[in-house]
Amino acid sequence: MATTRGIGGRRRLIFSTAMMMLAACTAGCTTTDRTTTGSVTRASARPVEQMNAMELAQAVQTYGSRYQKDPKNKPLALAYANVLGMTGRGDQALAVMRALAIAYPRDRQVLAAYGKSLASAGEFEAALDAVRRAQTPAYPDWRLLSAEGAILDQMSDRQAARALYHRALDIQPGEASILSNLGMSYMLAGDLKTAETHMRSASSAPGADSRIRQNLALVVGLQGRFQEAEAIARRELSPQQADANMQYLRAMLAQQNSWAKLKDKPKG
């Protein structure tokens, strides 16, 4: 029988793996490429989600240099915090977002992104406060509802999280990012079949990006269907990126001797 500690460890393992597999943006917020208050020239022509380690490092340097000269530039600060988070510099990303939230205390996009950074740092109560302050009850924003749900999921409040996802879907039916977050909720709870159902809906929905399809690959891989998972992972990523994703998944599962158990599990 699995112990509570073992189950908790497995959930943390799955969550950590999901983060490394480029999980969909938990805040569900508009990216810096679509901001309406200004523009930022990207450090690379490639989407940030598809950059390799060298390109991300260059993006950090480029955005960092610009940020030092203009720290209150909202699109620039959002872009800088994003690439910092993707290179594992969560504390630095949080510092950038905290300063931006002070400069824009009522901006919904800034508060949503700040909430994401707080949640990534494990400051869940503060993250909830930031996202809820950004919300307008009379005219709820589906992105913020999904963001709040993602934070609650990380606090293991699955029922409340899923209720928020369904509210968000009522406002924005078929939205890929909400369906992906809903799938992640079931994945974190260990219900991989239900997670896969939602992830497949998300990956085929309009607006689905590479990160969402990588999450589908993750769910499939966690069920032991590795060839299928690798096929999904390789459709859009470079061979090097796909290899890195699958190698990381294997390494994480191997830490708890889970990879061999899944691989040897009879089909069906």
Automatic annotation (TrEMBL):
<dbReference type="Pfam" id="PF14559">
    <property type="entry name" value="TPR_19"/>
</dbReference>
<feature type="signal peptide">
    <location>
        <begin position="1"/>
        <end position="27"/>
    </location>
</feature>
<protein>
    <submittedName>
        <fullName>Flp pilus assembly protein TadD</fullName>
    </submittedName>
</protein>
<dbReference type="InterPro" id="IPR052384">
    <property type="entry name" value="TMTC_O-mannosyltransferase"/>
</dbReference>
<dbReference type="InterPro" id="IPR011717">
    <property type="entry name" value="TPR-4"/>
</dbReference>
<dbReference type="GO" id="GO:0042802">
    <property type="term" value="F:identical protein binding"/>
</dbReference>
<keyword id="KW-0732">Signal</keyword>
<dbReference type="InterPro" id="IPR011990">
    <property type="entry name" value="TPR-like_helical_dom_sf"/>
</dbReference>
<dbReference type="Pfam" id="PF07721">
    <property type="entry name" value="TPR_4"/>
</dbReference>
<dbReference type="Pfam" id="PF13432">
    <property type="entry name" value="TPR_16"/>
</dbReference>
<dbReference type="InterPro" id="IPR014596">
    <property type="entry name" value="UCP035836"/>
</dbReference>
